[in-house]
Amino acid sequence: MMLSNQTDTEVFQSLRSGNLLALGILYERYGEVVYRVALRMLGNAQEAEDLTQEVFLSLLGSGIYDRRRGSMVVFLTTVTRSKAIDRHRQIRAQWQRIQRWFHSSSPESERALIDKVALKEMSCRVREAFAELSTTQQQVLEMAYYDGLSQSEISEELNMPIGTVKTHKRKGLLKLREILQDLVE
Amino acid sequence: MVFRESEEIQELLASYVLGDLTPEEVASVNQLLDSHPELQTEVRCLQNTLGLIPLALPEAELPPTLGSRILQTASGRSTVRANRVGTRAKTRLGVIGTVAASVVVGFSFYSYRLHQQVVATQAELSQYKNAIALLRQPSNRLLALQGTSAIPAASGSLVVVPNAEAIVLTLQNLTPLPEGQVYRLWGVADGEKIYCGEFRPDSQGRALVKFPLDAEISDSSAVVITVEPSQRLSYPTGETVMTGSISL
């Protein structure tokens, strides 16, 4: 089968066996999303390009992607965010947990890949879902996700009790999880 | 901790995933996950949800050359690995590695562009797959090509594949040609130039072409590329813009 028609997992395996074409294919599929996150988090095109390059080159390293842990797009956005936050020297305990989660090896059942849904369609769904959150829920999630701010930093910035920040974040995430159920399960 | 409502557990797991719990709370959630492995699925769903949040961002336009640069860097790294294979064959492998890597990168660009054009034809892709298969043949010979003073930035590789009686040429940084002109590849044997094939680069100055390998050409010790009018002549008339000689 042609590499370009293969699943992310197959393409990734091909990359691990030294086929650089596979890297081109993954870039073609996800380069834009990685760049999108990098641009939002780092705020300038040059740094976003560097980071995008770093993320894709990191795929050449040791075996890191495990489809049982989630789809390639979630894996890549997670890695991108991790590296962007690293760059800002704002590593959070939360973040370390996410990384542990990706590196831990407890077995998970095989699941259908999210990659069968076209990325554009998926972006559209996530955008619509995000728009259904309250403005405050959107705001606190964005501050936490893209700016890597802690609860207390958000609390200070928005002049809002920590408990309320925490509630908005949690409710926002749970609502997204509910709306996007078929994509995340 | 005692949880009466599943909703309460959901909220706790959400805060766990968001990194909003105190170290004590994290410890008790970890215990909970150990004793109730089914909750790990929920944690994974929440992690996935978090990971999808950036898809809500507006789509960005990728810098046009970024993909090429990444592949180039990646191929450089592969070459470094190839160099470490052994000390005796080190230099030789290094040269082959570099040429092979640039050929592979050439193909990667080619593949990438094809997809950008929404996989215009399956035929083109299978042609490129065939080219990759050719590159894996054991008895291939490799030539590095360099631009003359006419186009100093031009570079590329030529692979002679005796098993398939083919030549694969991959070039970059060529000058695009006006209508009515083509690039022609010639083999040089005993001072004579033998026609191998002609091609035109894409708008970015790249070319990937496959030509048949004639017995005469396989005796060539060098190749040249010239700019020629598009009507076919059996000898070169135009300026030599690239040269390469068999060094391996």
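Residues 90-116 of chain B form the longest helix (27 residues).
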